[in-house]
Amino acid sequence: MISPEQKFKDQVVIVTGSSSGIGKACAIHFAGQGAKVVVNYSSNEEEGKKTVDEIHERGGEAILIQADVSKEEDVLAMFRETVDKFGRLDVLVSNAGLQKDAPFLEMTLQEWQKVIDVNLTGMFLCCRAASRQFLAQVNNEEAPNHSELSIGKIVLMSSVHDIIPWAGHVNYAASKGGIMMFMKSIAQELAPHKIRVNSVSPGAIKTPINKEVWSDPDKYEGLMNLIPYKRIGTPQDVAKAVAWLSSDDSDYVNGETLYIDGGMTLYPEFSDNG
Ligand code: NAD
Fold this sequence. Notes:
By secondary structure, this protein is α/β, with parallel strands linked by helices. It has one domain (about 10-205, about 235-265): Rossmann fold (3-Layer(aba) Sandwich), CATH 3.40.50. About 40% of the residues lie in helices and about 15% in strands. The protein has eight helices and seven strands. The chain has helices spanning about 20-30, 45-55, 70-85, 110-135, 170-190, 210-215, 215-225, 235-245; strands spanning about 10-15, 35-40, 60-65, 90-95, 150-155, 195-200, 255-260. A seven-stranded parallel sheet has the order 3-2-1-4-5-6-7, sandwiched between helices. Helix 1 packs across helix 8 (about 235-245) and helix 3 packs parallel to helix 4 (about 110-135). The longest helix has 28 residues, at about 110-135. The protein is globular and about 60 Å long. It starts with 11 loop residues before the first strand and ends in a 14-residue tail after the last strand. Nicotinamide-adenine-dinucleotide (NAD) binds next to helix 1 and strand 2. It is an enzyme of class 1 (oxidoreductase).
């Protein structure tokens, strides 16, 4: 349903990897707040279409664009198509990401490279394209700015594994740790242009990426030992935080990481004095 608040009325939002999970929830949430949303998928067109259909059924506006975020030509084409269709861009949610897990000693270069290419290089390509677009549309009367303060907002999807080491997932943890410094460095560089850049770092969120854990009762119980708040997160928990960081309500927040993890980063192992 379209919210009466309409915090993102007429703003144009790209959410990468929004055919599923957290990205899908973000796309639906932004559309519910009046945004025109680009739903991006890499290979699963059917799931991408389902996100767009769900937005249309709720009375929102969205288009579907295929792009592999690790490929420069795909990313440039996605941003071109967005501006051709909607005339401008206000928010980038750089969300697409994946895991290719393996013990470090057995990890192949391919497993390492794929995760770095999508999770980190994909962020570089999308953030650079978004920032260039934000700057190109300043003082463009044909594309008036709908946000009152910044000229554009970027939210990167990191993970608690940007600070919690993760054996067996070194490619993933390295990519998320990399996002932290990438985000802070571009936030510093882009702030004078009035572009805001922040990250959200989810803990355990119930999506296809970690189905193997939440669908197994024993593993789920083990997971609860890591979450002081004693529940798994929902994609909507993350979407609401992403929307706040993209809104004028957080205008003075820049270069920050917001942990959405039910307390996972509170070292719960120490709650009984270790
Ligand atoms: P998911 O598997 O449901 O979604 C991942 C999305 O990324 C999918 O839509 C997929 O199609 C897309 N994608 C993968 N490779 C792509 C590519 N090359 N180009 C474009 N899109 C691509 O999982 P999710 O949990 O929703 O993950 C979304 C983001 O949240 C990821 O960056 C992930 O690392 C992060 N995250 C998830 C959790 C969690 O517990 N679920 C926790 C922390 C961080």
